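Sample 3 of the quickstart, ligand S-adenosylmethionine:
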Amino acid sequence: MDRHDLDFLLSDILHCPVLELPLRRDSVLSQEQSALWQEYVDRLKCQEPPQYILGKAWFYGLELEVNPAVLIPRPETEGLVERALGLLQPGSKVLEIGTGSGAIAIALKQSMPSAEITATDSSEAALSVAKRNAARHNCAIDFIQADLFPPQQDSFGLIVSNPPYISPAEYNALEARVRAWEPSQALLAAEDGLWYYRRILERAAACLIPQGLVCFEHGATQRQGILAIAEAHGFACVEAGTDLAGRERYLTLRHPD
Ligand SMILES: C[S@@+](CC[C@H](N)C(=O)[O-])C[C@H]1O[C@@H](n2cnc3c(N)ncnc32)[C@H](O)[C@@H]1O
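Result:
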């Protein structure tokens, strides 16, 4: 079992930050806490992610509800939020495609309250989680169940998305616990893993204002493939970024019309 997972669970039982655990080494667990600890360890042995065990995860300094209907937000996605924030003007209209727990949309709205944010997901169960998270953080976000784009024609200044991007071949090589517990529709993308980028870029220009932007998170080997699709649809690359581990991870694209 992973030490970080155990610490994450123990800190919740002891109601203290993980960093304080060394100071609490001599704590004696009550009977109730011991029973809970045993339950958590048993669930970890079944490979359940600790975030699903506790029903919560941290993203961009925000505590979010998570359950197996939504992807556990990843730290590298905070880099996408930072890029998107650098592109927003007060009052910008933003569309997030594939919102899951609502992590990106909520982080953007918290940092730029005047932004008008619409967020879509095809999963009704994911949207229920996202709506509860937005309510908990007092964020007014228009959540819509849709296949990528909202059905009503609208024009956005920015489309931001961390779509599914794992090809079927890569999916089989993922950690067993990701495959067993996290929703496959949040991870799997047909063909070479670029299926969602193709579908989004085919339609994005029609939903953007002139000079509108698209900001993507993507897999570490996908940059050139996405750039080729983007170019074919008239987009120019504004920025290509890496995550903290130096992996190619983010693309910002602009459409002139
Ligand atoms: C990689 S997850 C991203 C979740 C969240 N935005 C994040 O970054 O943690 C992709 C999300 O896209 C959603 N999705 C998959 N197919 C979709 C579609 N056709 N239309 C809208 N959303 C879709 C999934 O349900 C999932 O919530």
